[in-house]
Design brief:
The complex is a heterotetramer of chains A (103), B (664), C (505) and D (171).
Chain A lengths: L4 H21 L3 H26 L5 H31 L13
Helix pairs in contact in A: 1-2, 2-3
Chain B lengths: L5 H17 L6 H28 L15 E4 L2 E4 L5 E3 L2 E3 L1 H24 L11 H19 L4 H19 L6 H32 L19 H9 L2 E2 L2 E2 H16 L8 H4 L5 H10 L4 H8 L1 H4 L3 H22 L5 H22 L4 H5 L5 H32 L15 H15 L5 H16 L1 H26 L17 H16 L5 H4 L13 H22 L5 H8 L1 H8 L4 H50 L4 H24 L1
Antiparallel strand pairs in B: 1-4, 2-3, 5-6
Helix pairs in contact in B: 1-2, 1-4, 2-3, 2-4, 3-4, 3-10, 3-16, 3-20, 4-5, 5-6, 6-8, 8-11, 8-13, 10-16, 13-14, 13-19, 14-16, 14-18, 14-19, 16-17, 16-18, 16-20, 17-19, 17-20, 18-19, 18-22, 19-22, 23-24
Chain D lengths: L3 H23 L3 H21 L3 H26 L11 H24 L1 H4 L11 H8 L8 H22 L3
Helix pairs in contact in D: 1-2, 2-3
Classes of the chains: A mainly alpha (103), B mainly alpha (664), C mainly alpha (505), D mainly alpha (171).
Chain lengths: 103, 664, 505, 171
């Protein structure tokens, strides 16, 4: 039995699907962020796997993942700051109830 | 120019109108009336001077070598230039009929001005409300009518047609608080306006082909006028035909319709009886003597064209003859004195129209110089005499109405004892209109009958019959008012002859009615200016006097003393009598057409269509935009998950499609 | 600067200075506002008189150039947009008309309430647009001033209007803006075909002389521009803004709108649509001629059954303005002269009508003729004014309406084509229908018994109202009595247009 | 042929990724959700190690597992009252989400499987990446150098820090 490229892509794909599901269904903004992390992570895996399998001598995929992690960290930090701020004002983190700016 | 002071004849009434209209309102009522009378008196004197100078003077350009009176254009400035050739000028032109009309208009107008001083006051001699306005309007009317008759071109006639129409509207509606007066004035204006529309279309057609409005060309533009050479004018428009008639025939017919509206020819007569809602002197001036003959004057003015275009003449002839009879028949049963006189006026004007139209009876006569001028002369002569005695009759009627405060015959009866002067004046008027020699009407009507007999025996007999009816209905009115039975006094004071301001005009007009027949009209008022040699046709004259006497006798028998004969006769043909009394339901017909067809059937649907369909369409555009906008707004929900969902599905579809392309 | 030597520019500068003056006035107290507004209007009337003098003098001295008092200032060089000024006879009379109506309008809105200062500000901004439109001969500048004249209308109706004012203001503005959208497309199209040698231009004279617009483009651009202006000229079926708009607008705005703004439509139609695209005008003229013919009769019939005074006049305007466009489409000097006379006449007498209606409405607080009657006894001055306006409208000789209508009818009938002449005869029918609705409203409103006893306590016109109406009545009478003076000024202006039309067949 | 240890390792990683991913998005307790995310991130880190990218695995653990998840936990604790359950989801919403997710997985999976040959590639051999090389690449301006993104990210992080401070500061 060989560990093929496909075998690594499948968990990543499922992780991404879960992320999509979570993002679409959750109401809590933090949960949505968590789902977002899942999706990001699955993409990171893909980059790494493709890099490793297809271009083993190079490191583009790895670096891309590296930067993605860094940016994701920044983004998450900022998003969470906003969420907490919103919570302070609206006393809620339900995305459907935060519609004061809608119209 | 010896006649240049004619402009004063026109200008004084206009200035009087402006003065009385703008300043007079602030002045003492009686004073404005007296000022009006003085102004009118000056005008009258000047007009007589002009007319006499024209008829008997031998000034330059007035009479040609053959003794033919020429039309004199006193002045003729441009007023409105449509194009290089089509120019409307406002001028003064004198020819026999214009000069005659000057006399008619100023005389009657003078009498009415004077008469109104008394009539427009209540019994205590206080002037009525709006006295100044009344005199202003009278001046306006006089101005318009004078402007009309001295017109140098067709368009000027049209302009003053409109002006007299408006003055008539204002004067009929003088008592603007009474609904009947408003209604009558509106009706008069709209009916004549409708006729004017045809007049306008006629002018448009005519001017399109002849490229001129002027009757006579002048040195200024070098373009021949309409009447300089009628044959060529007709030839210009003769070639073009539309529905079988030449353009000229259409034009002349339309112009006649315009005249028929003013002259109350059937079926455009309906406004005239209602116009009697105006003050009686106004009826005498406008609706008996002057404005209503404007149509006759118009046809007479264009007579050289009409004689060539036989088709148009035939229409005039038929309309005139029918109207004469129709109106006479209605006049026989009317109970309102002014209405009866109004129908009598219609009938008499129709006489004039017919007389004009029978002039060209025989094609051969056109060749023979002067052969067909008899009817024309007769018509103008009758216009003159009729104006005098009809004004007299109306003024008498006014005096009577002023005395008994009613228009209805059954409030009058037996007034001879109380108002002898009025009675005599009225009798003279009746004799004149009935055609009893030596009163004025005899001479003119006789000529008309001769002309009609010349056209054909049938026409002659028909007109003689109508003449007989005229005698009958006039004396019916006379006997019913002044005899029939003893007068029952309805008001607090007995009726009596009116003050001198009202009686004097009666006497003057009665005198004119007696002597006017001896005016040598045949020498003065002919279509081409050349004297016409006529002699009394004793057969026609004798028979018409006989017929008139029969009519009078019949009226005497039926109406001199109270009896039941008229009632029995009315009962015996109840349907006919009612129909005649209701004026053969013409008013109802018009009412139906205007209200049911035009107002309810056209105007209302159009107004609804406008609001519902056209406005609805634009509102719908707005509505659709609004709806779509609100629909689209929902997509902008602000829900991030919704956006992602849509985005994700879209991306998936795109991926699926791409995948398919790549894989297969 | 060179341009300040041109008297025309002052027709824009004076309203702008008046705007400035008004802006400096205090918000409280109406006296200063009135003084500034009256001063501005008086200066404008004086300027208009001076312009007529200059014009007659130039023409009298034998200057036969198409446009007088020309001057060009480059505005935006890359697109060759210039502030091109110039007037011919038509512009001169339109400017005079506008000046008089602004003058009368100021007095008609003497007691404007609330916010008089702001009202006059917008009022003068509108005037600026109107005057600017008439003095400029550059497409871009004209369009700009056109928009300047349109936009204030929204606020003037929306803020100072009556009745269903928001709806009307919105409807009026949207429809006119829709029209100007068409117009802008047309103008851009004209611009890009304005010349064959690559030097594109916005100047009307140059475009007309280049005669470079290809025929197939003309067939597209002509309807766009004609409809664009036709909407403003209340052409059937784009007239529906007019009844609602007029009904809601305050008096002076109705006056200015019906009196001047609607004239922009007719003016633009011949100055831009017909003059620049004579081929398409000949080809497609009959379509618009039919529409305008419908307008004339349709508007008149609709007016017969209205009960609101302003609606009657709005529909009557549809009929009369239809006549303007109708005559313009007859393509001969006489009819086109008639069209301009009709613009003058309609401008003055509709302004008079709206002024009187505003004054009556201000007293009775109703415009429904069924609720009124016998006004002649109560307010004779206004009553007489109304009768004169009515008589002018139905074409009494001696007042302006007659002269204009007759010139139109005679000119239209001179057209050799049978179709045109039949339409002319159909259009003449409107003189009867006009008489019907005018007499109907005069009879119901002024004559008869007093319907409402409270109306007996109403007063007659005040001095400023008398001044406002008398100005207009005198103008109407002057045109009606001395038409040749105006015809002589106007008619030569159409020679180039008629020549272009003749050459393009 | 892979070593059995590697294969077992793979299955452990794959299963934990799948199971914990699903649990992350299905659990109704938000704190648990964050915990499961932590497990997913650990599994991912393990995967990186297996791929012979130890540095990346270390970064994953340090930044993600160590930083972000802690942030999550803190913010959950700040916004959530203890014992709060997420509200029951509306079923239509759940179904729609599921459909979208499954469709996405389906489409992508289909694409993957239709490239089975390509996907069946074996793990090629790769030399060790030492930290020196990595550092050179990160800070070089040569063709494969990443100095610019590196600096960009550092500026981003700075901006992020400032932004976080500004946003979270109590006014």
């Amino acid at each position: 039995m060989n560990l093929t490229l496909l075998m690594y892509l499948i968990p990543s794909l499922i992780m991404f699907g879960c992320g999509v599901y979570g993002f679409l269904t959750r109401k809590n903004m933090i949960a949505i962020m968590i789902s977002l992390e899942l999706m990001l992570n699955s993409i990171d895996i893909n980059f790494v796997v493709f890099n490793r399998y297809l271009f083993p001598g190079q490191m583009e995929g790895m670096f891309f993942t590296l930067f993605a992690i860094a940016i994701a960290a920044a983004e998450t930090a900022l998003a969470l700051a906003i969420i907490i701020n919103v919570f302070r004002i609206a006393k809620d983190v339900d995305i459907n109830k935060i519609n004061k700016l809608k119209f | 120019m010896p006649l240049s002071y004619t402009i004063a004849v026109i200008a004084i009434p206009l200035l009087m109108f402006l003065f009385l209209g703008l300043v007079g309102v602030k002045m003492e009522k009686k004073l404005t009336g007296i000022l009006g009378c003085i102004g009118m008196l000056v005008t009258t004197v000047l007009a007589y001077g002009v007319a006499l100078t024209y008829f008997f003077g031998t000034g330059e350009g007035q009479v040609s070598a053959e003794g033919v009176r020429q039309a004199v254009t006193v002045f003729n400035p441009d007023w409105l230039s449509f194009s290089k050739t089509l120019v409307v000028r406002m001028g003064i032109m004198l020819d026999p009929i214009a000069a005659m009309m000057l006399i008619v208009i100023t005389t009657v107008s003078m009498m009415v001005h004077l008469y109104s001083l008394g009539y427009m006051c209540d019994h205590h001699g206080h002037a009525e409300k709006g006295f100044q306005r009344y005199y202003a309007f009278l001046a306006l009317f006089t101005f318009s009518m004078l402007g009309l008759v001295v017109a140098t071109n067709l368009f000027q006639i049209f302009i003053f047609f409109e002006m007299v129409g408006v003055s008539s509207y204002l004067l009929i509606g003088f008592y603007y608080e009474s609904p009947a007066a408003i209604h009558a004035s509106k009706k008069a204006f709209i009916v004549t306006r409708l006729a004017d529309l045809f007049f306008l279309v006629g002018i448009l057609i005519l001017s399109y082909y002849t490229q001129t409005f002027d009757f006579f060309g002048s040195d200024v533009n070098g373009i021949a006028g309409l009447l300089d050479n009628p044959q060529s004018s007709v030839a210009k428009a003769g070639a073009t035909t539309f529905m079988g008639c030449s353009a000229m025939a259409w034009a002349l017919t339309f112009i006649f319709i315009g005249g028929a509206g003013k002259s109350a020819m059937y079926p455009l007569h309906i406004w005239l009886p209602d116009a009697m809602e105006g003050p009686t002197p106004v009826s005498a001036l406008i609706h008996a003597a002057t404005m209503v003959v404007a149509g006759v004057y118009l046809v007479a003015r264009l007579f050289p064209l009409y004689v060539i275009v036989q088709g148009a003449m035939d229409i005039i002839c038929v309309v005139g003859a029918f109207t004469a009879f129709y109106a006479a028949a209605i006049a026989c049963v009317q109970s309102d004195i002014k209405r009866a006189l109004a129908f009598s006026t219609i009938s008499q004007i129709a006489f004039m129209m017919t007389s004009l139209a029978v002039s060209s009876a025989d094609g051969k006569l056109i060749e023979i110089h002067g052969g067909y001028g008899l009817g024309y002369m007769a018509s103008m002569f009758h216009l003159f005499t009729h104006a005098m005695f009809k004004a007299l009759l109306f003024l008498c009627a006014g005096a009577i109405i002023h005395a008994v405060h009613s228009n209805e015959n059954d409030k009058m009866h037996g007034l001879h004892k109380y108002m002898p002067i009025t009675s005599f004046a009225f009798l003279i008027g009746c004799l004149a209109i009935a055609g009893i020699p030596p009163f004025a009407g005899f001479w003119s009507k006789d000529e008309i009958l001769v002309a009609a007999y010349e056209k054909g025996l049938g026409w002659g007999i028909w007109m003689s019959m109508v003449a007989g009816m005229t005698a009958f209905y006039m004396f019916r009115i006379y006997f019913l008012i002044f005899h029939w039975k003893k007068h029952e006094v309805h008001t607090e004071h007995e009726p009596s002859d009116q003050p001198w301001t009202m009686t004097l005009p009666l006497i003057i007009l009665a005198t004119i009615s007696i002597v006017a027949g001896f005016v040598p009209a045949a020498n003065l008022v002919t279509w081409d200016g050349a004297p016409l040699h006529t002699q009394l046709n004793w057969t026609v004259a004798g028979s018409s006097v006989l017929i008139a006497c029969v009519g009078i006798g019949l009226a005497y028998k039926m109406y001199y003393k109270e009896n039941t004969l008229p009632q029995r006769m009315a009962d015996s043909c109840r349907g006919l009598w009612t129909a005649a009394y209701r004026r053969f339901y013409m008013d109802e017909l018009y009412q139906f057409i205007t209200h049911k067809v035009i107002f309810q059937g056209i105007c209302k649907p159009i107004a609804k269509f406008d609001r519902a369909v056209i406005d609805g369409f634009f509102n719908m555009l707005a509505e659709v935009t609004n709806t779509v906008s609100f629909g689209i707004r929902k997509l902008q929900s602000g829900s991030i998950q919704g956006y992602v969902y849509v985005y994700f599905i879209g991306a998936l579809l795109l991926a699926a499609v791409t995948a398919m392309f790549v894989i297969f | 600067m060179e341009i300040f030597n041109n008297p025309l520019i002052y027709f824009v500068i004076v309203p702008l200075l008046t705007l400035l003056g008004l802006a400096l006035c205090s918000n409280k107290g109406i006296g200063a506002v009135r003084a500034v507004a009256v001063a501005g209007a008086t200066v404008l009337v004086g300027l208009a008189g001076w312009l007529v003098y200059l014009f007659l003098q130039a023409r009298g001295a034998g200057d036969t150039s198409e446009m007088l008092l020309r001057s060009d200032v480059v505005w935006y060089a890359p697109l060759n947009i210039k502030l091109a000024l110039g007037v011919d006879g038509v512009s001169v009379v339109m400017i005079v008309l506008s000046a008089f109506i602004v003058f009368a309008g100021v007095f008609a809105s003497w007691k404007m309430n609330p916010l008089p200062k702001q009202f006059f500000l917008w009022f003068y901004l509108l005037s600026t647009g109107v005057f600017g439109f008439f003095i400029s001969i550059d497409l871009f500048t004209m369009f700009m001033f056109y928009e300047v004249a349109l936009i204030p209308m929204y606020l003037l109706i929306g803020v100072w209007g009556s009745g269903n004012k928001n709806y009307s203001a919105m409807k009026l503005t949207l429809m006119l803006m829709g029209g100007s959208a068409f117009l802008m497309l047309g103008i851009i199209g004209i611009y890009f075909h304005s010349s064959t040698d690559g030097q594109l231009t916005m100047n009307i004279l140059e475009i007309a002389h280049n005669d470079a617009i290809p025929h197939d483009w003309q067939l597209w651009l002509f309807p766009l521009t004609f409809i664009g202006f036709g909407v403003l000229g209340a052409m059937f079926p784009f007239h529906t803004w007019s009844p609602d708009g007029h009904a809601s607008a305050p008096t002076a705005v109705s006056m200015l709108h019906a009196g001047v703004l609607m004239k922009l439509g007719g003016y633009g139609c011949f100055r831009i649509a017909i003059y620049l695209m004579p081929f398409a005008a000949n080809e497609l003229g009959w379509i618009f001629l039919t529409l305008t013919g419908i307008s004339i009769v349709y508007g008149a019939f609709s007016a017969c059954v209205q009960t609101d005074l302003k609606y009657i006049n709005a529909y009557s305007s549809v009929s009369h303005c239809g006549m303007v466009l109708f005559a313009i489409l007859m393509f001969n000097t006489t009819a086109m002269t008639g069209a301009v006379l009709q613009m003058l006449s309609h401008g003055l007498m509709t302004a008079l009508f709206f002024a009187l209606i505003g004054m009556i409405y201000g007293r009775t607080h109703t415009r429904d003729i069924r609720d009124m009657g016998g006004m002649m006894q109560i307010m004779p001055y206004l009553g007489v004014g109304y009768v004169i306006a009515g008589l002018a409208s139905l074409g009494l000789p001696g007042l302006s309406g007659f002269v204009a209508e007759m010139t139109i009818f005679v000119g239209s009938y001179e057209h050799a084509d049978v179709f045109h002449r039949v339409l002319t005869i159909a259009a003449t029918c409107s003189i009867v229908i006009t008489a019907v609705y005018i007499l109907r409203v005069v009879g119901k409103l002024l004559f008869g018994a007093v319907q409402n006893e409270h109306h007996r306590e109403l007063t007659d016109a005040t001095w400023e109202e008398r001044l406002s109406t008398a100005t207009l009545i005198v103008c109407v009478a002057i045109i009606g009595c001395f038409p040749n003076f105006f015809v002589n000024i106007i008619s030569d202006s159409f020679l180039p247009i008629v020549k272009a039309l003749g050459a393009a067949i | 042929m892979e070593s059995v240890g590697n294969i077992i390792m793979y299955f452990v990683i794959a299963l934990s990724i799948i199971v914990f991913s699903v649990l992350t998005v299905t659990t109704r307790k938000i704190l648990r959700s964050a915990t499961y995310l932590l497990f997913v991130l650990f599994a991912t880190a393990a995967l990186y190690f297996q791929m012979d990218y130890p540095f990346l695995g270390a970064v994953q653990i340090a930044v993600y597992a160590g930083g972000i998840v802690v942030l999550f936990v803190f913010s959950i604790l700040l916004t959530q009252r203890p014992g709060d359950d997420a509200a029951q989801l509306i079923s239509t919403r759940r179904w729609l989400g599921a459909v979208a997710a499954i469709a996405g997985v389906g489409v992508t999976g289909y694409a993957l499987f239709s490239y089975a040959k390509f996907c069946g590639k074996q793990l090629p051999a790769m030399g060790d990446i030492d930290m020196a090389t990595l550092g050179h690449f990160l800070l070089s301006t040569d063709k494969w150098g990443y100095l610019l993104p590196f600096e960009a990210v550092s500026v981003l992080l700075l901006a992020c820090i400032i932004g976080g401070v500004v946003i979270a500061r109590r006014r």
